[in-house]
Amino acid sequence: MLKVISFSNPWLQREFEREIKNLSMIGKCDYVVSLLDNFVLKSQGVIVEERLRGDLLDYMGATSLSIVDVKKIFYQVCKAVEFVHERNIAHMDIKPENIFMNSVDYVKLGDFGSSTTWEPGVPTIFFSNVGTQFYCAPEVRPHQGFEADKADIWSMGILLYVLITGYWPYSGPTQEATKSCVQNGDTTLAYDLLPPDDDLLNLLQRMLSKNPDERPGITDVLANRWLLQDLDNSFISFRNSGGKENNLRDQPVAEPSQTISKSSSEPDMVEMLSSLVIKSPRRHRSSVKYDNEADFNVSDSTRGIENPPQKSKSRRKRFRTVFALFSKLKR
């Protein structure tokens, strides 16, 4: 697939450079989407990656996940995070849209545009917003130091809760109160929607601790008894050996389209890809990266992930296509 990033501002160009650099450092991993090539065409950066059938968000919208499905998906994302953390890289934007899959048995983590390198004991500092607000750890704020690996663990906790319940763990009596909960990391777990398992509840509570030092490391998460229960050895051996599933259990998550919407900042690339790209699937509000508080609307945050988003004028357009057609673009 192709990921096209417009260099309409310096932040987007740095995102392109970060993703290339960190994916190159990661190298080959059975749980991370592979980087195949990259190049710059006029004012756009193009990243060529292996193509999977769809992403987790679309799969969640097409079918119901069993607890075993949740465990399989979450286990594979944990293995991806373990691999990149061992190389002192943090993803910083873990969410269903950035998790790609052929089936629940074959899942990979992708989209490393917000990723960063880190050193143990050395705070990471960003000078602009990063990540996605509903999944972002409360300590991750511009000009404020934080531990990047611990921030990933928070996002993993939100992801696990969403996979099980279909909702974000934020609530409040008013929009302003809910907004404050999201920004400050004040979570509320709906225990009636969660399996009555002490190991699971303890894991979620630790991962979503506002104190980063109280969060478990990714190795501890992978060793959780609730997670490993029901995961048979054949599945773990299959994935650890690099086994590959070719089909989703449901219909394809995105159908080919002959037309796409144009963005004024990317007219040249749109013209070149108009006959090739796959139509962008529907996204929920968590995919919007908010530039300021005025863009934030809490009303959807309490109603589950199936709600469609309002389009963000500030969100760049991303177009995806089969990487086998990549040579046509370069000619």
What name does CATH use for the topology of the largest domain?
Transferase(Phosphotransferase), domain 1
Class of the largest domain in CATH? Mainly Alpha
Radius of gyration using CA atoms only? 19 Å
Instruction: Report the sheet with the most strands, covering strand number, pairing sense and barrel closure.
Output: 3 strands, antiparallel
Return the structural class.
alpha+beta
- Runs with pLDDT <50, length 5+? 246-331
Plain-language structure description:
The structure is a single chain. The chain is an alpha+beta fold. It folds into two domains: 2-52 and 251-291 and 317-330, no CATH class; 55-240, Transferase(Phosphotransferase), domain 1 (Orthogonal Bundle), CATH 1.10.510. Helix content is 34%, strand content 10%. The chain has eleven helices and eight strands. It has a three-stranded antiparallel β-sheet, with helices on one face. Strands 4-6-7 form a three-stranded antiparallel β-sheet. A two-stranded antiparallel ribbon has the order 5-8. Strand 2 and strand 3 (44-49) form a beta hairpin. The two termini are 17 Å apart. The relative contact order is 0.17. The model is unreliable at 246-331 (pLDDT under 50).
What keywords describe this structure?
three-stranded antiparallel β-sheet; globular; 11 helices; Transferase(Phosphotransferase), domain 1; alpha+beta; 34% helix; 331 residues; 2 domains
